[in-house]
């Protein structure tokens, strides 16, 4: 036995179980990191009405937003007033990374979030404390358990002219565009409807009830998760993309086949 151990040391070979131990340790570290990330990314439980939350939000706002929106959110030449914008507007703009702006342009661009969910909710609580405005939606409207058929009809009537019937987005005027709604968080979809960011109109409960908004969210999540029955979607950009594909690929293939057959016969 001692001789075998001595031989292992001389040859520099690892114990047969060393690889198994290393793999197990790696899995534990990766699992812990993943769990920690998920806990950070998850929606934080924040008391939106507490003085501590509002004060924390005020400090974050002063340090990161006041340059454009004013120390008291009254607005400046570089940014609009946020008095009356409501918690939903802040949660949407900051939660999607549109705010703070990376640069002045036709519209705010989606980018990685610069704040945690808890910090975003704190700033939303501060803005909501300044004046009444649209609130962050209740979870029951975000569970994608509504009527997808009714949501499909409502979406075609109210949203498809800008966002495309397949929610793939579309171009607008003056360098602006309606973004894709595929992969967008349910809360952000609802908040966009009640706050009307940028070129989007506001859909109050008088236009679309909370239940109808939930139906639209259900429809969007349905088309996001269901496979396309028509095959390759070509980005779901509509007849222009499909026609271009036919002209370039389809007719191009026919011409190439014709040339090949002619060359073959000659």
Helix-residue proportion: 40-55%
Anisotropy-based shape: extended
The low-confidence parts are 33-43
Record field, number of beta strands? 2
Oligomer, anyone?
A: single chain
Q: Mind summarizing the main beta sheet?
A: 2 strands, antiparallel
Structural class: mainly alpha
Number of domains: 2
Mean pLDDT: 83
- What is the C-alpha radius of gyration, as a whole number of Å? 27 Å
Which CATH architecture of the largest domain is right?
Answer: Orthogonal Bundle
Task: Report the sheet-strand fraction.
Answer: under 5%
Instruction: Determine the N-to-C terminus distance.
Output: 82 Å
Briefly, what CATH class of the largest domain? Mainly Alpha
Map the helices and strands:
Elements: H1 2-11, H2 18-41, H3 51-64, H4 66-69, H5 86-95, H6 117-130, H7 148-158, H8 160-163, E1 170-171, E2 177-178, H9 186-195, H10 210-225, H11 239-265
Antiparallel strand pairs: 1-2
Helix pairs in contact: 3-6, 5-6, 5-9, 7-10, 9-10
């Amino acid at each position: 036995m001692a001789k075998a151990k001595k031989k292992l040391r001389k040859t520099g070979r690892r114990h047969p179980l060393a690889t198994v131990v290393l793999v197990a340790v790696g899995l534990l570290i990766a699992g812990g990191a993943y769990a920690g990330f998920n806990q950070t990314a998850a929606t934080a439980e924040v008391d939106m009405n507490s003085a501590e939350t509002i004060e924390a939000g005020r400090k974050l706002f002063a340090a990161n937003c006041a340059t454009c929106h004013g120390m008291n959110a009254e607005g400046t030449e570089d940014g609009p007033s946020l008095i009356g914008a409501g918690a939903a507007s802040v949660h949407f703009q900051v939660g999607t990374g549109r705010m703070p702006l990376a640069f002045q342009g036709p519209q705010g661009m989606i980018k990685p979030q610069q704040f945690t969910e808890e910090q975003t909710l704190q700033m939303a609580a501060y803005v909501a404390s300044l004046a009444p405005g649209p609130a962050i939606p209740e979870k029951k409207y975000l569970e994608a358990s509504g009527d997808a058929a009714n949501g499909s009809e409502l979406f075609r009537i109210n949203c498809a002219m800008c966002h495309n019937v397949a929610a793939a987005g579309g171009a607008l005027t003056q360098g602006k565009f309606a973004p894709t709604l595929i992969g967008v968080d349910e809360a952000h979809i609802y908040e966009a409807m009640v706050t009307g960011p940028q070129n989007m109109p506001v859909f109050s409960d008088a236009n679309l009830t909370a239940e109808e908004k939930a139906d639209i969210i259900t429809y969007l999540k349905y088309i996001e998760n269901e496979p396309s029955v028509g095959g390759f979607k070509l980005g779901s950009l509509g007849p222009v993309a499909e026609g271009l594909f036919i002209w370039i690929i389809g007719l191009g293939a026919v011409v190439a086949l014709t040339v090949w057959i002619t060359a073959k016969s000659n």
